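Good morning C.,

I know you're traveling, so I'll keep this short. The sequence:
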Amino acid sequence: MSVLFYTLICISLFSSLVQAEDLNCLPVKSVEGLYECIVKNHPEIKSAELSVEAAKSTKDKITQLPNPEVTISSMQGKNAGESEGSTELGLSIDLTETLVKRASLGKLGRAEEKMLIVNAQESVFQAKAQALKSLYRYRQVIDELELVTEALETFKKIENQFKARRVRGPEQTVTLNLVELAQGDYELQRNHLNAEKTKIETDFKGVFGETFILKKEWLPKLKKNWPQISGNELLKETFEVRKFEAEKEKAEAEKSIATVDALPKIAAGPSVQRTTTGQTQYMSYGFNLTVGVPIFSLNGGGRSLAEKNLTRSKYTYEYALKKSDLEKKLLLQRYSSATESLKKSIPLESLKKKHDQIDSLFRQGLAAGPTVIEAHRQISEFHKSQHEHEMEALESLMYLNVLSNKEIGEVLK
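The tokens, ready to paste straight into the viewer:
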């Protein structure tokens, strides 16, 4: 029992040391440093990167040479009272598999390797993109929470001001009701934002541990200058096109294999026989040949199926190519539209100034309660819209970077 106890302690200490070694990138000094640390330690990213390495072994597995077959036969008997017998040892190698089919298997291996690599690379991209989006969204949530909290404080002041009056007219009663409704709405918004903030924090704690705190200075700021990207830079195909291309190559290889499988299967190799007659023994050496007669594959069922699969995969690949060109154009338009909207939008500092001006006017009695509520609502809606456009521009830029053969993390520059 004590041995097991000490073993568990050693394993626990070793795991802690390994984790500490993995997280030696903390603390960081910038958002770029935090992103690099996330890439090094995020389990989904590490798993996807390992999948890329594992996929590179697929071709070797598929093109592995078949093992030779060894056959042994032994015969014993008597002839005129004299013992006779023979023992034969044969070694055969599948020549069809080794010589004829190998080229097709190599093509199949390369196609499956390509498909697995594309899938793994897409998983790496999605995991990195989600990490970057979480960093940007966390900063947005903090900004939105500040505006919501300030609005709630203003509404509370308006409510207290109206409730302090002994006599309220109909208009003031309606205003008070509107303020209470606005408070309820903004409380729900604050609860939703806090839940979203906690979710993002939990995700990062899953990577770095329970004690990790996402500091505000590590968060990416809203870009003032978004990079210009032209269609000429998009030299790489989309993940979808690359998948369909690999599927087409796989179908071509399977058609070639189906053609080979319809041929006679030939296996050949050396044979050695020992013959015993009474007290006399002698050795014989020869050659064995096995030919499989393709009687049941003459109808071409396998070839027909492979041919249809190839036709289908060619069609889907050509369609994906056409669609890819349109998707790239739409992606550029989406990015351009989002960045143009952001350039024309009001900075956060100006929004806060307008917020303070509205509160000041209300305190001076120069703005009515409903006007203040509507102004806060418009500021809040504008801020949300600005954040939505920022996320749209960010998502577009990340994928455009991939299509331009750039690292996805360059969006932080």
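Safe travels,
E.
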